[in-house]
Amino acid sequence: MFLYTLIQIVELVTNVLVMLVIVQFVIGLLLAFNVINQSNAFVVQIYQSINAVLEPVLGPIRRIMPSTGAIDFSPLVLIIVLQVMLIVLTNVAIAAQ
Fold first, then answer.
1. Using an 8 Å Cβ cutoff, are 51 and 24 in contact?
2. pLDDT, tens digit, for every residue of 58-83?
3. Over the stretch 38-56, which tens digit does the pLDDT of each residue have?
4. If I label 18, which of 25, 35, 50, 55 is the partner at 20 to 30 A Cα–Cα?
5. 20 close to 95: Cβ distance less than 8 angstroms
6. What predicted TM-score, i.e. pTM, was given to this entire model?
């Protein structure tokens, strides 16, 4: 029973991180294509806050991955790793029954 609770907590944290990555990506695109003005302090503050939250997780991935130029694949790698981790934990919980 405790294992299922732990998996649900990990799943919740994973979902929050994935949503933050998606929001960071969308805001970054909107700022890059000047759909949202860089002088909009509220949006820029949200973007910087999300970057500050995600940087401790994305930084090590960026250091491991080879340089791909202007495209940053570290958010995609993070999402894939989190999903694989959830699958493994769920299968371990099922096997432990």
1. yes
2. 999 999 999 888 888 999 999 999 99
3. 999 999 999 999 999 999 9
4. 35
5. no
6. 0.87
Structure tokens at 21: 């990555």
Task: Output DSSP code: residue 67.
Answer: P
Burial of 61: CB neighbours in 10 Å, binned 0-12, 13-18, 19+ = middle
Under the banding of pLDDT at 50, 70 and 90, the label for residue 23 is very high
Is residue 56 within 8 Å of 74, Cβ to Cβ?
no
Burial of 21 (0-12, 13-18, 19+ CB in 10 A): buried
Q: DSSP string covering 56-78, please?
A: HHHHHHHHHSPP-TT---HHHHH
Q: Tokens 């302090």 belong to which residue?
A: 41
